[in-house]
C-alpha cells in the first residue's frame, strides 16, 4: 500500500531491503525507500502516515551530497536511473508486519505463471511457421491486398517475437542485490572486514535459472567469507590489506553465462582437504596422492565433507557445498574451483544459455548467414584489397595507427560460395578481445538484432569457430561465430 | 518368446533398417539445413525443429556409403540417445512393426557395407525381409576417427 502511494507520488528509485523482500515480509520493522517526486515533504508524509499499518514516517529530502554519503562503499554496478525531476526524497516507514498490496517496484510488474509462458512460446513458434508460409503464398498469388496484409502481419509478429523471447529473461541483478547486505552482516558477525564488489549485474538469465541460482550463490558467498577471507590480523600479518575483497561477477562467454565468486583470502589447503576426504572415506590416501590440485579442490563438493574445525552456525555442516553442486548440475551447468594458497580462491559457475539473448550483428557470406556478438565488435568499416599487407605470412592492415591482423571469415568457415580474395574491397568488422584487435572480412552486413542463443547440443560441442546458433525471423538457423576463434 | 520390440522401419540405400520406437522422437520431412563449418562431412548441419536447433547427419555418409540427393520420400528421423538428440537423413521412413527380440541374430561382419559395430543385429521378418537393427550409441559415437573401411562384396 505504501508503494501504491509512492508510485502516485513519483518514481521509486531504490528500496532497502529490495522490493521483493518487502513483498515477502523479509524486513524487520522498518524499510527505506528512495523516491524521486515532485510532491513536497509534507504531502508525502501525510499520505504515507495515512496508511493504517504505518506507525511513523520520516521523509528526508536528499541532495547530491547526501546521496553520495548514503550510498554504500560496495557499489553494485546497476545502471543508475538518472532523472531530471527536482527533488529526490528518501522516505522511511515503520510498519507492522503486514503484506503490502502487490503494487510497487521500480517498474510495474505482474506475476505470470511460467507454464503459461512456455505455452505462449510454443504457440508463437507455430505462428512463425505459418507466417513464413503465408509470405510465400502471398508472393505466389500476387494480390496486393494480400501482400500488404501479410507484410503488416510480419512486422507485428517480428515485434511480438522480440517481446515473447524477452519475457522470461531477468537480469541477474535481482538475485545479486540482496548480497551486499548479507555479506556485510556475515562479515560483522564473524568479526572480519569484507568488501563485496559486484560486476555484470545486468547480465540476463532465464527466469527459472534465476530462481534456482540464488541459494547456491548464497552458500558460495558465505563460504568465501567464512572460510576464505582470513580475520583482519592474519591478513595484516600476511601483508594483505585488512579488508578482504570478494568479487561477484556475471558475464556471457560463448555459449554460457558465467558467475564467478573470487576472494583474496587464504586459498584452499590441499593437504587439509585431502586429510578430511580420506578421514571421511571419500577417497583413499593413494587416490589422493594421484589427484591434481583441481581434483582435490573439487572434493569439497563431495557429500559429507567439511574441513571446518568447528561447525559454525553458518557453514561447515558439510551440507552446503554438495547441494550447491547438484543444484547447479540440475540447471545444466557446472561449477569449478581454482585456488592459490595465500592468494585466494575462485568459484566459477558455468550455466548454459538455454534462453539467453544477446545483441548481435548479422552478416552474410555468400548464401550463408552468421551472427557475431555485438559486444566484441568495435566498429565496421570497408577495407580495400590494396590496404592489406602480408607480413611474415600474415595478412595485416593498418588501422588507427596500429597494425592489426586481417582474418578471412570465409576461409575460417570454409564458405562454399564466397571468397574475399576475389573482391577489390570488403566489408569488415573490427573486433577486440582484451588488448588484441583484428579486422574480419565479411561479405555484407544484414543489420543488428537481439537474438536468442540456442545451444548447438552435445553432439556438436567441441567444434570451434561456432559457439551456438540462433533462429532468425524467417525460421532459418544462423550460426553464431565465437569471437575467440577470430583472435587467438 | 523374447520381448516384443516396437520398431520404426526406414530405408537406406537398398536395405531396410530398424530403430526402436522409444528412441525416436519424431520423423520430419526434409527441411533446409544450415551447414556447420569444421565438422565431419556426414554431419550435414543443423535444422530448426520448432524452435530447437538439432544437428542432422546423413546416415549414408556416416556409414561410408555414397551420398545421394534427397528425394520426396527422404525423411529426417530425430532420435534421442542418452541426452543427445540428432536427426538422421534417410531415404524413406515406412512402417512401425513389432519384432520379437528372439528373432534378432547377431550381425555378420559386414552387412550392406557397414561395419558390424554400428549394428545391433539383423532381424528376420515374417515376409522374409531382413531388418538391420542399428546400435545407436555406436552410430553417435564421436570418439573414433571417421575412417570407415569399405568392403567390396
Shape of chain A: globular
Total separate domains of chain A: 4
Number of domains of chain B: 1
Mean pLDDT of chain B: 82
What is the strand content of chain B? over 45%
Side-by-side strand order of the widest sheet of chain A = 14-18-19-17-16-15
Q: Could you give the topology of this structure?
A:
The complex is a heterodimer of chains A (about 500) and B (about 150).
Chain A lengths: L1 H8 E7 L2 H5 L6 E8 L3 H9 L4 E9 L1 H7 L16 E9 L18 H28 L2 H24 L1 E3 L1 H4 L2 H11 L4 E6 L4 E3 H22 L3 H6 L6 E10 L2 E8 L6 H10 L5 H6 L2 H6 L21 H11 L3 E7 L3 E9 L3 E10 L2 E6 L3 E8 L4 E3 L2 E6 L2 E7 H4 L12 E9 L2 E7 L1 E10 L12 E6 L5 E5 L7
Parallel strand pairs in A: 6-8, 13-22, 17-19
Antiparallel strand pairs in A: 1-2, 2-4, 3-4, 5-7, 8-9, 9-11, 10-11, 12-13, 12-20, 14-18, 15-16, 16-17, 18-19, 21-22
Chain B lengths: L3 E9 L2 E6 L3 E6 L13 E7 L2 E7 H4 L12 E7 L2 E7 L1 E9 L3 E2 L4 E2 L2 E2 L3 E6 L5 E5 L1 H4 L14
Parallel strand pairs in B: 2-13, 5-7
Antiparallel strand pairs in B: 1-2, 1-8, 3-6, 4-5, 6-7, 9-12, 10-11, 12-13
Looking at this protein, list some descriptive labels.
heterodimer, A: 488 residues, alpha+beta, Heat Shock Protein 90, 4 domains, 6-stranded mixed beta sheet, 5-stranded mixed beta sheet, 15 helices, globular, B: 153 residues, mainly beta, OB fold (Dihydrolipoamide Acetyltransferase, E2P), 2 helices, 5% helix, disordered C terminus
Overview of this structure, please?
The complex is a heterodimer of chains A (488) and B (153). By secondary structure, chain A is an alpha+beta fold. Chain A has four domains: 2-95, no CATH class; 114-167; 171-352, Heat Shock Protein 90 (2-Layer Sandwich); 356-485, Beta Barrel (OB fold (Dihydrolipoamide Acetyltransferase, E2P)). Helix content of chain A is 33%, strand content 32%. Chain A has 15 helices and 22 strands. Chain A has helices at residues 2-9, 19-23, 41-49, 64-70, 114-141, 144-167, 173-176, 179-189, 207-228, 232-237, 270-279, 285-290, 293-298, 320-330, 409-412; strands at 10-16, 30-37, 54-62, 87-95, 169-171, 194-199, 204-206, 244-253, 256-263, 334-340, 344-352, 356-365, 368-373, 377-384, 389-391, 394-399, 402-408, 425-433, 436-442, 444-453, 466-471, 477-481. Chain A has a six-stranded mixed sheet with strand order 14-18-19-17-16-15. In chain A, a hairpin with a 2-residue loop joins strand 16 and strand 17. In chain A, helix 5 runs antiparallel to helix 6 and helix 9 runs antiparallel to helix 14 (320-330). Chain A starts with a helix and ends in a 7-residue tail after the last strand. Chain B is mostly beta strands. Chain B has a single domain (4-139), classed as CheA-289, Domain 4 (OB fold (Dihydrolipoamide Acetyltransferase, E2P), Beta Barrel). Helices cover 5% and strands 49% of the residues of chain B. Chain B is built from two helices and 13 strands, in the order E-E-E-E-E-H-E-E-E-E-E-E-E-E-H. Chain B starts with a strand and ends in a 14-residue tail after the last helix. Residues 145-153 of chain B have low confidence and may be disordered.
Amino acid at each position: 500500500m505504501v508503494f501504491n502511494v509512492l508510485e502516485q507520488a513519483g518514481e521509486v528509485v531504490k528500496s532497502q531491503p529490495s522490493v521483493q523482500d518487502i513483498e515477502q515480509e523479509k524486513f524487520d520493522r522498518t524499510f527505506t525507500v528512495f523516491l524521486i517526486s515532485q510532491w513536497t515533504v509534507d504531502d508525502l508524509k501525510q499520505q504515507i502516515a495515512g496508511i493504517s499499518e504505518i506507525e511513523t514516517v520520516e521523509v528526508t529530502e536528499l541532495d547530491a551530497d547526501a546521496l553520495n554519503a548514503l550510498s554504500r562503499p560496495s557499489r553494485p554496478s546497476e545502471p543508475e536511473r538518472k532523472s531530471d525531476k527536482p527533488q529526490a526524497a528518501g522516505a522511511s516507514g515503520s510498519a507492522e508486519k503486514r503484506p503490502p498490496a502487490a503494487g510497487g517496484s521500480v517498474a510495474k510488474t505482474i506475476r505470470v505463471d511460467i507454464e503459461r509462458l512456455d505455452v505462449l512460446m510454443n504457440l508463437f513458434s507455430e505462428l512463425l511457421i505459418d507466417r513464413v508460409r503465408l509470405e510465400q503464398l502471398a508472393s505466389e498469388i500476387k494480390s496486393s491486398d494480400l501482400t500488404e496484409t501479410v507484410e503488416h502481419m510480419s512486422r507485428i509478429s517480428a515485434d511480438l517475437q522480440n517481446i515473447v523471447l524477452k519475457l522470461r529473461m531477468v537480469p541477474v541483478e535481482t538475485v545479486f542485490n540482496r548480497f551486499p547486505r548479507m555479506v556485510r552482516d556475515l562479515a560483522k558477525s564473524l568479526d572480519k572486514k569484507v568488501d563485496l564488489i559486484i560486476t555484470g549485474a545486468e547480465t540476463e538469465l532465464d527466469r527459472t535459472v534465476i530462481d534456482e541460482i540464488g541459494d547456491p550463490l548464497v552458500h558460495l558467498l558465505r563460504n568465501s567469507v567464512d572460510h576464505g577471507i582470513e580475520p583482519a590480523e592474519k591478513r595484516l600479518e600476511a601483508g594483505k590489506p585488512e579488508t578482504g575483497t570478494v568479487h561477484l561477477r556475471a558475464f556471457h562467454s560463448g555459449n554460457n553465462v558465467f558467475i564467478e565468486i573470487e576472494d583474496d583470502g587464504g586459498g584452499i589447503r590441499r593437504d587439509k582437504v585431502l586429510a578430511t576426504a580420506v578421514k571421511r572415506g571419500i577417497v583413499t590416501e593413494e587416490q589422493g596422492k594421484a589427484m591434481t590440485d583441481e581434483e582435490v579442490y573439487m572434493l569439497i563438493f563431495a557429500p559429507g565433507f567439511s574441513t571446518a574445525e568447528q561447525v559454525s552456525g553458518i557453514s561447515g555442516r558439510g551440507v552446503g557445498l554438495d547441494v550447491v553442486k547438484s543444484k547447479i548440475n540440475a540447471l545444466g551447468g557446472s561449477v569449478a574451483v581454482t585456488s592459490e594458497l595465500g592468494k585466494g580462491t575462485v568459484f566459477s559457475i558455468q550455466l548454459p544459455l538455454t534462453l539467453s539473448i544477446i545483441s548481435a550483428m548479422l552478416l552474410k557470406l555468400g548464401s550463408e548467414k552468421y551472427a557475431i556478438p555485438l559486444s566484441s565488435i568495435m566498429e565496421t568499416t570497408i577495407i580495400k584489397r590494396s590496404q592489406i599487407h602480408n607480413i611474415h605470412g600474415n595478412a595485416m592492415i593498418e588501422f588507427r595507427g596500429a597494425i592489426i591482423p586481417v582474418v578471412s571469415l570465409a576461409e575460417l568457415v570454409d564458405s562454399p560460395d564466397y571468397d574475399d580474395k576475389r573482391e577489390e574491397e570488403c566489408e569488415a568488422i573490427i573486433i577486440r578481445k582484451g588488448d588484441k584487435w583484428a579486422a574480419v572480412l565479411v561479405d555484407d552486413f544484414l543489420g543488428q538484432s537481439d537474438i536468442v542463443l540456442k545451444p548447438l547440443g552435445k553432439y556438436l560441442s567441441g567444434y570451434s569457430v561456432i559457439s551456438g546458433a540462433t533462429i532468425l525471423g524467417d525460421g532459418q538457423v544462423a550460426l553464431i561465430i565465437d569471437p575467440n576463434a577470430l583472435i587467438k | 518368446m523374447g520381448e516384443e520390440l516396437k520398431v520404426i522401419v526406414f530405408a537406406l540405400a537398398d536395405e531396410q533398417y530398424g530403430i526402436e520406437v522409444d528412441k525416436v522422437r519424431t520423423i520430419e520431412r526434409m527441411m533446409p539445413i544450415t551447414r556447420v563449418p569444421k565438422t565431419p562431412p556426414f554431419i550435414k548441419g543443423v535444422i530448426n525443429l520448432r524452435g530447437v536447433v538439432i544437428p542432422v547427419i546423413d546416415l549414408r555418409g556416416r556409414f561410408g556409403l555414397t551420398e545421394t540427393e534427397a528425394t520426396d520420400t527422404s525423411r529426417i528421423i530425430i532420435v534421442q540417445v542418452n541426452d543427445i538428440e540428432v536427426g538422421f537423413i534417410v531415404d524413406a521412413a515406412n512402417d512401425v512393426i513389432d519384432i520379437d527380440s528372439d528373432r534378432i541374430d547377431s550381425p555378420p561382419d559386414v552387412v550392406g557395407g557397414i561395419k558390424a559395430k554400428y549394428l545391433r543385429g539383423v532381424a528376420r521378418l515374417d515376409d522374409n525381409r531382413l531388418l538391420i537393427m542399428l546400435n545407436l550409441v555406436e552410430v553417435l559415437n564421436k570418439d573414433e576417427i571417421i575412417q570407415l573401411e569399405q568392403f567390396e562384396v
